[in-house]
Amino acid sequence: MSYTTQMDAARKGILTKEMKAVAEKENFDPQELMRLVAEGKVAIPANKRHTCLEPNGIGSMLKTKINVNLGTSRDCSDLDMELKKVNDAVAMGAESIMDLSSFGDTGKFRRKLTSECPAIIGTVPIYDAVVYYHKPLKEITSREWIDIVKMHAEDGVDFMTIHIGINKNTADRFKEAKRLTNIVSRGGSIIFAWMEMTGLENPFFEHFDEILEICQEYDITLSLGDACRPGCIADASDISQIEELITLGELTQKAWNKNVQVIIEGPGHMPLDQIAANMKIQQTLCKGAPFYVLGPLVTDIAPGYDHITAAIGGAIAAASGASFLCYVTPAEHLRLPDLDDVKEGIIASRIAAHAADIAKGIRGASDWDQKMSEARKRLDWEKMFDLSIDPEKARRYRATGKPEKEDTCSMCGNFCAVKNMNRILEGEIVSIYDE
Ligand code: SF4
């Protein structure tokens, strides 16, 4: 029996090799996974042309996945450097790479990714259209925006962010409602400006049926972009954000009617106490479609540390229903991230994802912590390094603070509670003072 997309296959009862791979990786019942894919609660982004892909499933009942944004820009157009970041990101556990290139030969980099990289590859066609057509924004035609979507599909990308929620209706609501930081989504600001200058409807919204046909042909997962994601905590959960989310919910159903897989993009900046409620609203309006969040950053005042503000929000979001975290680096709001920024962003995001997985009771998540705690109790330093989320840093820190007693660390030395408890419970004398 033939099928178009993973969702189509699941609805026909076909267990694809991608579903089998995801079920095995997640230690999940294949039939149950197939049911969730059929319902749209799990997406397996897998373009038929991305043949080196090692598939992953995105859904709140699976392990939380992380995405790393990379790509060339006018200020940093070194392809080799970006590829090094991609390879490092995959080695560090990123399941997804979004190529946000906005300068130079973007097609060459994109095709290199889909021919060599085993991670899920995502793109934002809006950025590329501006580079590709080499003409003022206003002169790009509705047809040309759609052609870029087709081009990315042919190049093998697994998912695309399409800023479709900001149609004429939501744009009018946004202008009426006013907000502190307007639209901070790069793609959202571009398409809003285009709509304002041309007076035309959002081309992705107007030609959604055609986009769905492209998605069916290649099995592209649509990542419905949130142009109105709050860019500061003052704008969180406002009329623009919720209005757009309602539109995204309606479009989710339209996509599912054509067996096209969907994930929904979300905030943004958001106070801690609003995050769980936002996850619930999204799950309700978008009928359980996987939620992909950028952060959320729980405060606006920490440039240089936004990997931390995002990890705090990401952990709460994922524990409350989000299934896909977009990493945020310390360079957020300041510059394009360098290799160290990328590493710090990935580690912070992985910690958030893992913390959420423990809270959600994802199968096997807390086993890792169990092993670490056992090694800690034994003061087995080599094992602790091996189990660390960043073994290199753990080793470096211990090496640069050598303790007098090799089995302890320089934090407490012979006051080491772990060592002393092990000894006293084994019947030894614990003197501390003269040891
Ligand atoms: S010395 Fe202190 S911090 Fe270090 S392992 Fe022992 S109890 Fe833990």
UniProtKB/TrEMBL annotation:
Pfam families: ThiC_Rad_SAM. It is an enzyme of class 4 (lyase). Substrate binds at residues 69, 98, 127, 163, 185-187, 226-229, 265, 292. [4Fe-4S] cluster binds at residues 409, 412, 416. Pathway: Cofactor biosynthesis; thiamine diphosphate biosynthesis. The keyword Iron-sulfur applies. One of its GO terms (biological process) is thiamine biosynthetic process. Its cofactor is [4Fe-4S] cluster. Keywords: 4Fe-4S, Iron, Iron-sulfur, Lyase, Metal-binding, S-adenosyl-L-methionine, Thiamine biosynthesis, Zinc. It comes from the Bacteria. GO terms for molecular function: 4 iron, 4 sulfur cluster binding; phosphomethylpyrimidine synthase activity; zinc ion binding. InterPro entries: ThiC, ThiC/Bza_core_dom, ThiC/BzaA/B. It catalyses: 5-amino-1-(5-phospho-beta-D-ribosyl)imidazole + S-adenosyl-L-methionine = 4-amino-2-methyl-5-(phosphooxymethyl)pyrimidine + CO + 5'-deoxyadenosine + formate + L-methionine + 3 H(+). Its EC number is 4.1.99.17. Zn(2+) binds at residues 269, 333. Binds 1 [4Fe-4S] cluster per subunit. The cluster is coordinated with 3 cysteines and an exchangeable S-adenosyl-L-methionine. GO terms for cellular component: cytosol. Belongs to the ThiC family. NCBIfam families: PRK13352.1 (NF009895), thiC (TIGR00190). Catalyzes the synthesis of the hydroxymethylpyrimidine phosphate (HMP-P) moiety of thiamine from aminoimidazole ribotide (AIR) in a radical S-adenosyl-L-methionine (SAM)-dependent reaction. This is Phosphomethylpyrimidine synthase. The lineage of its organism: Bacteria, Bacillati, Bacillota, Clostridia, Lachnospirales. The gene is thiC.
